[in-house]
Amino acid sequence: MNRFSRWFLPLSLLALFLTGLCVRRVVLRAQVDAAGFALPFTLESALNFRRVEEVFAGGRLPGTDAGIQYPEGVVVRENDTVGAEYVYAALARLFPSSVPLAERLRWIEASWFCLGIPLMALWLWWWRRSKAGAAVAAAFYAVALSSVMRSTGQELSHENFALPLLIGHLAFDALARARGRGAGGAGAAAASAVLLAAALATWDLVQFYVFLWAVLFAVRAVRGSADAWETSRGTAQCVVLAAAGALNPYLSAHGFLASPAMRIAYGGLLAAALRRGVEGGRWGPAWGRPFRLAVVGLVPLALGGLAPGPYGEAYGHFAGLLAAKLRFLNRKPADPSLLTFDQRIMWVPALHSANWALTQMLFPAMLWLSLVAIPLLVRRSSDHSDPGLHHLLLLYVASLASFVLFVRFHVFLAVFAAALLGLWAAGSRGWGRAAVMLLLLGGLGVEAARTLREPERWGRGAYYRELVELTDWMERYVRPEPVLANFGVSASIAAYARCPVILHPKFESKAVRERVRSYGEALFRGTEEDFWGWAVGRGAQYYVYALGEFATVAPELQMRYFVDTLTPSTNSAAWRFEFAPESAGHFRFLWGNRKYRVYKVRTPDDGAVAARFARDARGELEKGRLGRAEDRAAAALLLAPANAEAQDVARHAASLREQGFRTSAHERE
Fold this sequence. Notes:
Number of helices: 31
Shape: globular
Helix content: 55-70%
Strand order of the largest sheet: 3-4-6-5
Radius of gyration: 28 Å
Distance between the termini: 56 Å
C-alpha cells in the first residue's frame, strides 16, 4: 500500500499529461486528414517556425534579421520574445533525422503545452491537498476545447510555451504558501518568481496576469491583510520581474520597467515598507492608515503617467482598441471613419469581440459551471482570509471580462475556470460532494464531446493548398528576391519561399503599423503608378496580391475597411490587380491560383536580376543539379526572355533530360 501511494501521484500526473496530448494529436490528425497533406504554419506561426529553423541550423538567432521588414530589417531580440526557439530546437535534435522538422515541432509544441496539465493538478494539490480537486481541474484543462483549440501543434505560438510556465508559477506559489518560511517555502517562492519572469519573457501578454497580480499585491499591502511571508514573496517577485525587465532585450526595449503593472507593484512595495516602518515605531501611527498608504502607493503610477515613454508607444494601440470597444458597446461599426487605423486593423480575430454563439462553442460547460461555483466558494470561505482564493477570483473575473472584449483571452479564462472547478470539487463535503462530482463529470463529458465530435473543425481557416502552391513556386522562381505581400502571407513567404519581405507580420511597433497603413492607402487610394512608386521605394522586386479584397462578405475584415476606403476607384491599383491583372503597366503578371497572384515589379535592374539568376543556373548545371538549374533559368527568362545565358542553360538542361539524365532526389534540400 505504501508503495502504491508513493507511485500514485506521479502515475496520475503522467496519465493526465498523456490524455491531454492524445486529445490534441487526434484533433491535429483530423485536420491533416481533412486537408489531405501536411499543413504549413501560417501568420506569426510561420515566423516562429522560421526562427526555430535558424536556431536548429545555426545554433543561434541573428542579431538583425534583414529578411523581415526589408531592407532595414529588425533587431530580433528587441522585436520578438525570444526563448522558446532554443528549447524547441534542442528538443528537435532528439528526434530521428527522418522526421521532418515541422512534425517534430508539432509534437514538441503540444507536449510542452500539456506540461501545464499536471502542473494544474499540482497547483490544486499543493493548495488544498485534494486528489479530487487536482484531478477535476487538470482533466478539464486537458480536454476542454478552449484549451485544446490553439495547442494542437498545428501552429507554433509563444502563448503555448508560456502558459505552462505561468501555471507552474501558480503551483509553486501555492506550495510556498503551504510550507511557509524556511528552506522549502523559500525555494518554492524562488521557483514561482523565476517561472513567472520566464513566462513574461517568452509571451508579453503575460503582462495581463502581472497587472492583476500587482493590483492584488498593492491592495493587500495597503489594507494590511498581507502577512510578513506574503509580503516577502511579493517583494521577491517584484525584484525578479524588475531584473527580467532590465536584462531581457525585448522587455527593456518595450519599457516594461515603467509599465502600469510594475508601477503598481512599486506602489505596493512602498506601502508595505511604510506599514513596516509604522509597526516598528519609525513612523507615526497616522501613516499606517489605509488612505495615506493608498496615496503613497499611487505615487509611482501617477509619476509614470506623466511620461509614458516606449511602453506607451509599444502598447498604446491596445488601449485605443479597448476605448473603441467600450465606446461602441463592443460592436465594430460599419463605418470605418469612426475608428482610427490602429483600431480598425486590430479589431479582427483574435482580438474581435465574443458573442453568444462563440462563447457557447468555446465553453459548452466549463464557463457555466464555474459561474455556479463562484458564489458557493465565496459563501463557504467564512473568514475570507485565503489570499489564493482572492487571487483566483480576481483572475477569473478579469479574464471573463477581457474575453468578452478580446476573444484571445479565452486562453486565460480556460486556465482559471478549470482551477475554480477544481477548487469547487476540493471543497465539497458530505452528500453534496457526490452531487457536485456528478455535475462536474457530466460537464467534463460535454467538454470532451465538443472537442472530439468534429475535430477537423478546430483548425485555422486558411487557404492551405493555395499557400503551399504559392510558396513552392516562389521558392523555385523568386528566391532570394525581396517580396511585397500583405502581412497575412508575408511570414509564410519568408519561412517557406525564403524571400525577404517588406511588411512585418506583427503590429507591436508603431513603425510597422505605419508601414502597413501607407501600403494599404497606396493600394486602395492611389493609382497603379502611385503604388508602384511605393513598392519600388522599398526595394520590392515582386508583389503578391491576395484575391478577395472586394468580397461583399465581411468587409470589416478587409484592407479596404482598414484604410477607410470601402469603395475604391476603378483607377486604384487594387482594382486592377483584382479584376484586370494583365492590364497593369508597372507590374507584370507571372503566376496565380484561386487566391494569390504574383507580379514582377518592373524596375530598371530587371536585367541585372535576370543575369544573376542565369549565373546561378549555370553554376547549378555544372554541379549536376538539373532541377535547380532549370528553375533558375526559368526565373531568369521570366524577367528577361532574351537572356542568352539562361536560354543556353535551358537548352542544355532539356538535352540532358532527353538523354535520361537524373539528379539526386535531395538536390533541393
